[in-house]
Amino acid sequence: QVQLVESGGGLVQAGGSLTLSCAASGFTFGSYDLSWYRQAPGKERELVATISSTGGSINYADSVKGRFTIYRDNSKKTVYLQMNSLKPEETAVYYCNARRRYYSDIWGKGILVTVSS
After folding, report:
1. Burial class of residue 109, CB neighbours in 10 A (0-12, 13-18, 19+)
2. Nearest 5°: phi and psi at 69?
3. Which pLDDT score, from 0 to 100, does residue 5 have?
4. Given this model, what pLDDT does residue 23 score?
């Protein structure tokens, strides 16, 4: 079964840290670029960070540069998002995405991160 399952969300105070994990199964993980998106209440889903299939290319949204780190472990079929110095406005559902040219996108169900002020 093709799936992505996020974990590690929860409640954290402003300024705190949290690491999200996304475990993959059912597809060739190492051939996919992996991304984290988030969607805050009443807002559109936005791209947070992307890491290429080999890990050689990484990009971040300007709003998280210097605070968030995306990394992957292809042997564990898992992608991570380390989030530091979290802000209340970053309260959102965070989604994992896998993308490969000519293939359909794969999405996780999302996990809630709540940052209290």
Report:
1. exposed
2. -135, 125
3. 98
4. 98
